[in-house]
Amino acid sequence: MSAVIAFKNVESMQVAEADVMAILPTQAAVSPAPTLMEHAPSAQEDSPALGREPGRGQRLVRGARELAKSVVPPLLGIALLLGIWALFSVKNNSIPGPMQTWDAAAKLFADPFYRNGPNDQGIGWNVLSSLQRVGIGFGFAALVGIPVGFMLGRFKFMNRMFDPVISLLRPVSPLAWLPIGLLVFQRADPAATWTIFICSIWPMILNTAEGVRRVPQDYLNVARVLGLSEDKVITRILFPAVLPYMLTGIRLSIGTAWLVIVAAEMLTGGVGIGFWVWDEWNSLKVEHIIIAIFVIGVVGFALEQMLLLLAKRFTYESR
Amino acid sequence: MKPIVKIESVGQEFPTRAGRFVALRDINLAISPGEVVALIGHSGCGKSTLLNLIAGLTRATHGVLLCDNREITGPGPERAVVFQNHSLLPWMTCSENVMLAVERVFGRKEGKAKLTARVVAALEMVHMEHALDKYPHEISGGMKQRVGIARAFAMEPRILLMDEPFGALDALTRASLQDELNGVLAKTGATVVMVTHDVDEAVLLSDRIVMMTNGPAATIGEIVTVDLPRPRDRLALAEDSRFAAYRATVFEFLYRKQLKKVA
């Protein structure tokens, strides 16, 4: 999306887009055989000309076309991004181009887990320690946020009591809490974890509370008519009903936490991907900063997908 | 025969912003064992309110409700409810849904094997044995309601309370479930109170039809005793003059005596 918007500023974009448009229809509509070879080489052996039964060939053509539809657009998007980047690096010498960055990345990822003292460690260690901070901060947030959310959802009084507090604190950037963390913990590392805790806790509380509020009255009536004990009501009815909302809260929390950790680590230092970006900036290794941007993006994307998958597993089509 | 449920001068009021709203007044009714009673009336006449009172989901503001001569103070497994929208828990399979009820009622006295046998028997009774391990979203609306009925029957309740059990189903599915219910009732001799707004359903299934006046302050208008032999066959009854007469009586009550002013 942002790539497309950025493109509008570049004049040559018009040409590039026109090319893209010209390529697309041919791939989608006309004979799939020539264009498909690069994506689905197996289709070549079973192409309609060789196939004994026409039905099978047709099915293959259709399947290949579907594959092209799902693979070609994302590839084009990434190609576009690389194109702009390359163009940009040609016009601006201080920005390394894709090839230069690739070489640097190959060197970097050849040994991601080296250790030369506390301030010079491989990118693998940096990513892992950032993930660890996110994990710990988020873990505490879940530990506090889920029970609080349950209480706010269950008791109107509690909800009214905490509503102004949450409304006031939620819009505050978690980084504003960093000095308080530094003051209380006297060390940089728990202070960063503390900011993660703060930014994770709001979505956890609010989504859990919303889930509890939305438990259908029918389910609660079933529980009452069956005369289920309180622990059965919680484990068999409330918890499964609230779980999808909790997972949404977890996904939002982790997403924000991954955004915030980079900024927090830039301020606190130590080992971590955010600190690493800042360190590389101080030594002017711009290609490493670009690599870090990709790594942060890939990790964030992976986290999101993992949690989406988890949420899908625990979402029940009701009705 | 001693009645299972006795309702004595029961009234129900709800506090609203505009003051007290009287939903029900002066309800008197006794339900005998093995009887099938239909509550019918225009929407808003408080028939579901009355059913909820018997279920114990709400408490009456006036009068007393008794079940086996004990005051009804809350829900209990001897008064099973079939909800209008099946209310199966979507994260449990059909058999797990039924097991939840069976476990509660018989779990202390019986072993796992016996409980499972009860679950299977209940689902077999409504011809849903093929869906033991299916989740509610994998089966049709009519099937879900069958499982809901199986869950209620599996508890072996003293009385079965049904709140428009087939209201959410299409006409053909509804007809087949009514026939099925008739069969189950014949087999089990269960006592049933059923809320409905379907005149044919009321005549087809019940021994007595309790017709309620319009709200607010609704009460029992008339009671018709349906003296049709069982088992009742839908097709044979369609030609039966007595069936037509009962039908006409209920229609007469609903559409002449209690015609609802169009809002």
Give a structural overview.
- The complex is a heterodimer of chains A (about 325) and B (about 260).
- By secondary structure, chain A is mainly α.
- Chain A has helices at about 1-5, 15-30, 30-35, 40-45, 55-90, 100-110, 125-155, 155-170, 180-185, 190-215, 215-225, 230-270, 275-280, 285-315.
- Chain A contains 14 helices and no strands.
- In chain A, helix 2 runs antiparallel to helix 5, helix 7 runs parallel beside helix 10 and helix 7 (about 125-155) crosses helix 13 (about 275-280).
- The longest helix of chain A is centred in the last third of the chain and has 39 residues, at about 230-270.
- Chain A starts with a helix and ends in a 6-residue tail after the last helix.
- Chain B has helices spanning about 45-55, 95-105, 110-125, 140-155, 170-190, 200-205, 235-240, 240-255; strands at about 5-15, 20-30, 35-40, 60-65, 70, 80, 160-165, 190-195, 210, 220-225.
- Chain B has about 260 residues and is α/β, with parallel strands linked by helices.
- In chain B, strand 9 and strand 10 form a beta hairpin.
- The mean pLDDT of chain B is about 90.
- Chain B has two domains: about 1-75 and about 160-165 and about 190-265, Rossmann fold; about 80-155, no CATH class.
- The interface between A and B is medium-sized, with 18 and 23 residues.
Features:
heterodimer, A: 319 residues, mainly alpha, MetI-like fold, flat, B: 263 residues, 6-stranded mixed beta sheet, 4-stranded antiparallel beta sheet, 8 helices, 37% helix
Strand content of chain A: under 5%
> Largest beta sheet of chain A, briefly?
none
| Computed CA radius of gyration of chain A, to the nearest angstrom | 26 Å
- Biggest interface found: A-B, 18 and 23 residues
